[in-house]
Design goal:
The protein is of the alpha/beta class. It has 2 domains: about 240 residues, Zn peptidases (Aminopeptidase), CATH 3.40.630; about 70 residues, OB fold (Dihydrolipoamide Acetyltransferase, E2P), CATH 2.40.50. It has an 11-stranded mixed β-sheet with strand order 1-3-2-4-7-5-6-8-14-13-10, with helices on both faces. It has a 3-stranded antiparallel β-sheet with strand order 9-11-12, with no helix packed on it. Helix 1 packs across helix 7.
């Protein structure tokens, strides 16, 4: 199926308590260069193996490395970004298709997901939550309260929402560019943006993405480890003390995702996630000299100097007034 250098299996560790309870899955290394989640999961797994911690209720599944190919090479994707088009496929082609065919049923078999990530530029940890309860077509959802309570207990005070709304706008703009270039619309993946938490919500569960810190931050694995323990405490899977929420919380909403269109597109300066933006402030310059300026005051999120043309370059965020819990 794959060259021998490509791991052809996905590893999970499961612990089931004698008493019924929620089913929690914790994932790491969805992106291969984001190893803090792997380290956090390995640490907790060691405690469970040594009997220092016991799952007495419900089910805990640990997946320390979700993308073995990307992890082995220390890079973000394997063949592609696993966390942008996560769905089962009857005819797998790329490495991530095979992963999705295993990972998606695992997610569907659980109630709650804690997905551990890290980010490129310096900054403090934050959590990504889903939408408000709704019956719409983009991301229908019915667990806003439970998901907000989980986000509040992970030990961070910055909360970001609006992922799918931002990506829906991004897909629409990609379709417009495809039409202008005379390309078929099926060249634009309408489901781009669906990752682990989005898939989890689509199958009836809930979950959050915890960005534990910068990739190389030595504190990031500790952030992930404590978050797992607090999730176990919150769900009652293990006899652990539940710490109070860290608040007050800074809640932001992603409004727009901006793609890099050419290798010569460049930022006006070195940006860090959550740098504030003044209305009209210059963010970057396209290869043709056109300027990208902030349409209103807000924040820049996930600026990626290494983004490939056709991929997301940065996001714009605004303050959110939606309560967390």
């Amino acid at each position: 199926m794959h060259p021998k250098s490509r791991t052809a299996h996905l590893q999970a560790h499961q612990f089931a308590g004698f008493e019924p309870g929620p089913r929690l899955i914790v994932t790491g290394a969805v992106h291969g260069n984001e190893t803090c989640g792997t380290r956090a999961i390995e640490r907790l797994w060691g405690e469970l193996q040594r009997g220092e911690l016991e799952i007495t209720r419900g089910v805990l599944t640990l997946v320390p490395v979700c993308n073995p190919l990307a992890y082995a090479h220390g890079r973000r994707p394997g063949d592609r970004n696993l966390n942008r088009r996560l769905r089962p496929t009857p005819s797998p082609v790329e490495y991530e298709d095979h992963i999705a065919n295993l990972l998606c049923p695992w997610l569907a078999a659980h109630d709650v997901l804690l997905d551990l990530h890290s980010f490129r530029s310096p900054g403090k940890p934050f959590v990504l939550r889903g939408p408000a309860d709704n019956t719409g077509t983009l991301e229908p959802f019915a667990h806003e309260h439970a998901e907000g309570r989980l986000a509040a207990h992970l030990g961070v005070d910055r909360v970001v929402e609006g992922w799918m709304d931002a990506y829906a706008g991004g897909v629409a703009r990609r379709r417009e560019r495809a039409l202008a270039a005379g390309l078929p619309l099926d060249s634009v993946d309408a489901s781009y943006g669906v990752g682990t938490t989005e898939y989890m919500r689509s199958v009836g569960g809930y979950g959050v993405t915890l960005e534990c810190g910068q990739h190389e931050d030595p504190k990031a694995p500790e952030v992930g480890y404590q978050a797992i323990r607090q999730t176990l405490a919150l769900l009652g899977l293990a006899a652990l003390p539940l710490a109070p929420p860290k608040g007050p919380f800074e809640c932001l909403r992603l409004d727009t995702v901006v793609d890099r269109l050419h290798e010569n597109d460049h930022f006006a300066r070195s940006w860090t996630s959550f740098d504030p933006l003044a209305a009209g402030e210059l963010i970057g310059v396209r290869h043709d000299g056109s300027e990208l300026r902030a349409p209103e005051a807000g924040w820049i999120v996930f600026p990626d100097v290494g983004a490939k043309p056709g991929n997301e370059w940065f996001y714009l965020a605004q303050r959110s007034d939606r309560p967390l819990d």
